[in-house]
Amino acid sequence: YYLGPIFWAWTWLAILAGTLADQARLPALEIRDSSVARPAGMLAAVAVAGMLLVPTAIDAPLRARQADLSHDTRARQWVDAVLTEVAPDAVIVSWWSTSTVLWYAQLIDHRRPDVTVIDDRTRLDLDYGEATDVIARFLGQRPVYVIRANDRDLGLVRALYALAPLDSPQATNVFRVVASRGAGG
Prior knowledge:
It is built from seven helices and five strands; from the N terminus they run αααβαβααβαββ. The chain is an alpha/beta fold and 185 residues long.
């Protein structure tokens, strides 16, 4: 995810360092003896490269500790809560960030193969329409749960459907679709 931007940043830093090194060499080119010009330019390039790398090297241990999420179990707790509470043969209308965690649990951990996770990409691929259309398609046939990316998207669902949150404090963003508001719900 971040490798592309990191690659571009380092590429531009390398170009900057090369440009600075070229600029440092220009006065040295006036000297007729190339054996003197070459070491001066190389020394300038090494100095610029060192100046660019030193702050990164000093900051690396702290940044590595901050980026280390190996002991963060919130995603595992969330997926455990969701997969424990959703009814058999459920449909979960989700979005990318939560879909990937659920799919991992299904495909890698072999948990809850009876649950169908339909995220925004799946909706497009299967021509299901909007999230509310997916809910309408399955409601009454299978238990339907919804997870939306933001309050606006959740509000669009709430306008058409009555929702009940899961009981779990770890999965406060997951709602069971209870009824259609147009059907007296």
